[in-house]
Amino acid sequence: MKDYNDYETVIGLEIHAQMRTHSKMFCGCPTTFGSEPNTQTCPVCIGMPGVLPVINKTALEFTIKTGLALSCRISPFSRFARKNYFYPDLPKGYQISQYELPICEGGFVMLNVDGAERRINLTRIHMEEDAGKNIHDGAGSHVDLNRAGVPLMEIVSEPEIRTPKEAAAYVRKLRTILRYLDVCDGNMEEGSLRCDANVSIRPRGTEALGVKTEIKNINSFKFIEKALEYEIERQRRVLSEGGRIIQETRLWNTSAGVTESMRSKEEAHDYRYFPEPDLVPLMVDDGWISEIKKGIPELPDDKIRRYIEEFKLPAYDADLLASEKQTAAWFEEAVSLGANPKDISNWMMGELMRLLNEKAIAIEASQLTPVHLCGLIKLVSDGTINLKIAKTVFEDMFNTGKTAGELVKEKGLVQISDVGELEKTVEQVIAESPNETARYKAGETKLTGFFVGEVMKKTRGKANPKAVNEILKRLLG
User: Is the pLDDT of residue 1 over 60?
Assistant: First the structure.
């Protein structure tokens, strides 16, 4: 029996990203999520006889933009194809997709997993229309065709991913790039970003690919890792017991934590692809590609490098701040107001992220703005308040939208820095703590924290910690 470590995992991912267009891929119906079932349909997207599709130019532009951002080759000539299969949520009985002539070919995504850089090459990016949605409840099964015809990009990787952790990192990185480009909202819970994973294992050191299974429609980073971990273990167990892997499509059962067989895996010939007769081929000229390229913003990897070089941030800080477009914009606005970049980073990565997570709101929806934070940082740096008070003020700013200056004045939180006043308080604490004073003088200097804490209690946290430490050293010898 082979040891599990004798096998190498091979993973390829297909990412389906719904594009942020106002209308569908081949008709003028809206794409708003959450509308009443079957209210966003027309004869084109429900497949009525005699209707003709018209290509959504914005969807084509978004796909080219994504391809350029991922270093793909943009094909000057591409075309759509019919992919034939029969499900209740596919009203035409076929899907308009791309097959042998996709709009984007090649390209790559760079990952950093556990400090190691990995380049994952892409096979292609192509356009297609989404299917509808089957809804199953106690009363039976229903079909909602609102989603039918929504523009999709399918981003296909080469089978170069080796671990579930790498797979999750790959999807996370792609989602970040798509959100930076503003071509997909990346909302996995609503299904606007979904992942199909092809996974196989092979004896370590061999080149031939093993028999693969496909896990369909995984919709969270956590589930990507869990589903792949389970499926890899299942395949290893089957082979180690002398069985064989069957090529099939499987689903991830989130409740049971297992993959389950759905159907035998289709091959390309099963779909009977042929060129879409109702759409002319696409001819994309270099001039339009150049115009689209000008609209690509600074992307995460470039932003991380700039934060490290220009703002002298640690790589960890830079990576976290650049992980979301809105977070990066918030940080850069704060820096433009003149505060120290590292101070901004510390507050954002600590208190701000904590409160945003607790309240479950996005950074752009917060009452606390870069102006608020920079005002607080100034009050700390000029000695008006200490760090302990600043943390309280920060949370109050977050909850009320008031500025740091308003809250400090309103609550009388100005830091006590007067040496004479602080000296009296320190003398009082020393007099009330004879045992601790004797131990300190005997060499237990770690008791400094005790004395500072007692002074803070008496001043309700308003004492200047630096001044208190200096007075303690002087009075305690």
Answer: no
The angle that helices 404-411 and 370-381 make with each other, rounded to 10 degrees, is 50
Question: 227, exposed or middle or buried, with CB in 10 Å at 0-12, 13-18, 19+?
Answer: buried
Q: Which secondary-structure segment (H or E) carries 141?
A: strand 140-144
Q: Residue 100 — pLDDT band, cuts 50, 70, 90?
A: very high
Strands 7-18 and 151-157: antiparallel
Q: What angle do CA 439, 445, 450 make, to 5 degrees?
A: 80
Sign of CA dihedral 144, 148, 151, 157: positive
pLDDT value of position 15: 97
Q: How many CA atoms lie within 13 A of 350 on its CB side?
A: 11
Asked if the model's pLDDT at residue 2 lies above 60, the reply is no
Question: Which pLDDT does position 5 carry in this prediction?
Answer: 67
The rounded distance, in Å, linking the Cα atoms of 91 and 68 is 33
Domains detected in the chain: 4-291 (no CATH), 298-411 (no CATH), 419-476 (1.10.10.410)
How many whole angstroms separate alpha carbon 43 and alpha carbon 59?
20
DSSP tag of 422: H
Distance CA 27, CA 38 (A): 15
